[in-house]
Amino acid sequence: MNVKIKTQSEIENYRETGQIAAEILTTLIDHVVVGVSTYELAKIAEDLIVNKYDAIASCIGQYDFEYALCSSVNNVICHGVPSKQEILKDGDIVNLDITVKKHGLISDTSRMYIVGNASSKAKDICKISQECLYKGIEQVKPGNTLGDIGFAVHKHATRNGYSIVREFCGHGVGAEMHEEPQVLHWGKKGKGMKLVEGMTFTIEPMLNEGSRKVKMLEDDWTAVTEDGKLSAQWEHTILVTKNGYEILTLRKEEISKI
Ligand code: MF3
Ligand code: CO
Ligand code: CO
After folding, report:
1. Alpha carbons 125 and 130: distance in angstroms, whole number
2. Collapsing DSSP states into helix, strand and coil, what is residue 19?
3. What angle do CA 209, 149, 101 make, to 5 degrees?
4. Which atom of ligand 1 is nearest to the CA of 171?
5. Cα(257) to centroid of ligand 3, in Å?
6. Tens-digit pLDDT profile for residues 22-78
7. Ligand 1 closest atom vs CA 70
8. What's domain 8-254's superfamily in CATH?
9. For residue 112, what are the β-bridge partners?
10. Which string of DSSP letters, residue by residue, matches 191-231?
11. Would you state the pLDDT for residue 47?
């Protein structure tokens, strides 16, 4: 398998790229309000990436995607396409997923946003999916395997009554958005590729309230839950370090959580 190990100078640059993406997700908090369209959110993200941070919005032009972020509302699992017609309303939950390229390296991160007052079940899936991401990250260290990550993520989801989507997964990330290996959100302890210092990949579990089954919409991008129930996802770009991990896209508001 062709897994690229990052050099020390690439890692220095990657920290900067990761922090740009992290700051943008934090900035977006103030913009995710009742009445905003997902198109407006994509344009705000694009403007920040390009003009404030002098970086590249690498989702634009990836395959045939046209926006700086994916916006996945309520029953949308991932890859929701921003739209002027999609206006956020009170109680919605939305995932915003951005990629930022700078110094030739791509960081890829997403979080959930709660619009106004959401139901307790909407808040719960947001909370548990974030915990699943952290459970996966805690497994990252040289010598552990991809199976250890998947096992930990899946266990935390199912013990809280959620299913894990299987059609999409985390991935190596670097010069390209999607590199090897695939990082599955289920697995067996001790199985799969061994983690090595200098690897960079995402962990990005998608949890469904009901069935794990996915339905694709006609735009060939938007993946929704087959049963119409809620879905939630969080994503970080992770570096394997000598003794563990570094979350390249860590946001300041998370430091107390992990
Ligand atoms: N950010 C997504 C991921 O986590 C991929 C976006 S696809 C794109 O892998 F086309 F929008 F770039
Ligand atoms: Co992403
Ligand atoms: Co990703």
Report:
1. 8
2. helix
3. 90
4. 9
5. 21
6. 999 999 999 999 999 999 999 999 999 999 999 999 999 999 999 999 999 999 999
7. 11
8. Creatinase/methionine aminopeptidase superfamily (3.90.230.10)
9. 95
10. -SPBP-TT-EEEE--EEESS---EEE-TTSS-EEETT---E
11. 98
